[in-house]
Structures are given as C-alpha cells and as structure tokens.
Amino acid sequence: xxxxxxxxxxxxxxxxxxxxxxxxxxxxxxxxxxxxxxxxxxxxxxxxxxxxxxxxxxxxxxxxxxxxxxxxxxxxxxxxxxxxxxxxxxxxxxxxxxxxxxxxxxxxxxxxxxxxxxxxxxxxxxxxxxxxxxxxxxxxxxxxxxxxxxxxxxxxxxxxxxxxxxxxxxxxxxxxxxxxxxxxxxxxxxxxxxxxxxxxxxxxxxxxxxxxxxxxxxxxxxxxxxxxxxxxxxxxxxxxxxxxxxxxxxxxxxxxxxxxxxxxxxxxxxxxxxxxxxxxxxxxxxxxxxxxxxxxxxxxxxxxxxxxxxxxxxxxxxxxxxxxxxxxxxxxxxxxxxxxxxxxxxxxxxxxxxxxxxxxxxxxxxxxxxxxxxxxxxxxxxxxxxxxxxxxxxxxxxxxxx
Amino acid sequence: xxxxxxxxxxxxxxxxxxxxxxxxxxxxxxxxxxxxxxxxxxxxxxxxxxxxxxxxxxxxxxxx
Lengths: 402, 64
Hints:
heterodimer, A: eight-stranded mixed sheet, seven-stranded mixed sheet, 11 helices, globular, B: Alpha-Beta Plaits, two-stranded antiparallel sheet, two-stranded antiparallel ribbon, 16% helix
C-alpha cells in the first residue's frame, strides 16, 4: 500500500471515526488507522454520555446503548446523598459496540480502515504535514495525504511531531482505574458520584450502572495529588470497592488517563488537525470527552473535506475548525476549567457544607446550576470569574458537556 | 533509570501524555522508553494508574 489519500485519520476512537465519517461524506478519500487489533477494545472509559448531546452527532441505536439513566446523585464526603433534578437523560454506552458502530459509519461513507496500524511518524513537504508512516504486521508504509487528523488519544504524539505543544501538566491529568463489577446491587436508574479527599483526591469516584447487576465503578485522582501523596488510583479503588462492594466479581479492569485541561492553544497546523483527547477536548469538570470529541470530529471532518475541495489545506484554512470548535464547546470548557480548579480547592468540610445548603432548597430547585451557585458562594473570589458567565451559559453548557 | 514492569502495564498511555522529552513509545501491547532521551523527571512514575513504572537509581549503567 503506497497510496495517496486526501485525509488520513490516526486513531479510531469516537473522535477519529466521526472525523473520518464526515470527511468521507464531504467527498474526501479517507484512510482511518487504528493501532490496536480491534476497534472498541480495550475500552478506556466510564461510558456515560448525556442523551441530548449524543444526538447532536449520532442517532442513538439500541445496539450500543447499555442502559438509560434518569438522574445523577452526588455524595458528599460525609456520605450525604445529593440528588440532582434534571430534564436530561443519560446513556451508559457499550463502547465496544459503539466505537465499532462509528467506524462502520466511516467505512460505509467510503473511508478505508486499517487496524493493527501503528503510526510512527509524519511526512512533511515544505514544512507542511503531508502524510504518515505506519507499521502494520511487520511492514512499513508511507501514505501521502493532504491532511492528517490526529485522534490518537490522551497519549497523542502526532501533534508533537508537528510541533504542537500537547504535553499535559500533572494538575491537568486524572489518573484513573475502573472495575466493572458483576453481581452487585445498584439502582440502574442513577449515576452516582462520590467526592472526598479520602476517596479520590482531586477527582471523584463514579458508579455507572450497566444493568443486570453490573456497574462501572472507578475513580480518577489528580496527577498532582498522586505525586504529592505518593499513592496511585488503584490503591484508592481497592479501598472503595472493599468498603462498598466487598467481594464483588471484577469482570473488567480498565486503566487510563483523562486530560482535564483547556483545549490546546493550537489544534491545527498546515496539513494537520487534532481532535478529541489528543486536542484535550474533554469537559474538565466531568472528565466526559466522548461527545465533545465527536463534536470536534464532526467539525474537523467537514472542514477537512472543504479544505480538500478548495485545494487549500493551509493552517489558515484549517483554523476554521479551531474557531468552530471554540464556538461549539471550547469556550465552555474554559469556564469549566476554572470550575474544576475551584472544586479541587474545596476541603471536605466545605463540600459537606455545600451539600447541606443545597439540600435546604426545595426539591424542584435542586439543579446542577443551583449547586454550583451555592458552591461559588463558598469561594467568593471565584464569583467574579465564573458566576457572571454562568448565569446565561451554564445551563446549555452543562447539557452539552456532561 | 525508569523501568517498566511489563507484567503490570496495561498500555494506557498516561505516561506518554506527561513525558516532557517525549521519550516513551506506546504500541498496542508494548512500551519502550528511550533512556538516552529520558531526563528521569519521574512524572510518568507519579501518574501511572497501576504503579507500573519504577525509578531505579543507576549511576552509570544504562540497561535497555
């Protein structure tokens, strides 16, 4: 294989497959490369998405919806349960099927797909990214393309090779472990979140039910806390499971990192676009990145196809993607980034106090926005920063980004 | 020197994301550290979710 493509996409997670799908719909000749043997596994994800935001990119299909969620419940450090009311529904996906499904959409739109294809370098022509080299089953390939889309995840190197600064700071990574537990008692209608410095410093514990007595039970801790405390998330998770679900069978063990950063300053350069975790397009508060990555993938794929049609794949043209992304999600993520930093600074006592104040609200007013309002009152210094923007933006932003 | 315990590694790539000199290479089920490029900053050791990476003091010897 020594061919030319219009667009090569590196990584067949949701962001990459959606980018390939939309680039192909736009008429581009697309190659989608995945380093693993399969598309989907190994899943590195808690698999929760907001239903309405998913629908912005793909129609929900029962093949990949594992469970439907009615609400979120937060637990304060003292164990106080804080149920949130919301009109929004959520899904727990089956990512093994979901990722496969999205890659199939790309394939059906005309994209070529290769698995076990490890991209180990970029090709350049006159300082312009002009393709990739990859290894697959003992052979090395050079593929020329007008655009490369890097969707190579938290561990992205594609951006670095093109001179973009992708290195994460310790405070901007959540280091995570998750067990999918079987034969446990969980209410399948609710996603539960536990906050406490003792349980998950600089992060939280999640329990996302998958139905049939199974749930994704995991946690992330801030990289900075991991460094300070000299403890890893696996030790925290063992403690939590021992306490809440002693002896539960561990059906799957999932390990990974979540970038909880602002979007990279630069996500395009001539002939190159980054999408998804590679571009740090994750909601920094929730750590949710499936749909935001897909939204970015959709925009990037469309603009890549336009650029190919226009015969202009310069940085200037591709910046349209950067601009559209910031309009769609990126700006919200900047607000959420400040919120994240605030949350990480709360002590357990402060979190308990926030929970108590919140529970004094009438049931009908216990929304996520009101919870944040109460939280921000605890830290008045943040109000100027965040509160004003919150009033009009938070509601729609929350809906789109959980 | 940073050592990888391959029996523990799940090849998740968190270490790659924080590495300042970009000296870690992750494949499907294989991880390699370029010890020549490594500055031994240990950031990868701190963020590994499952304690796969280990810093071992070596004065001169640099094993592969």
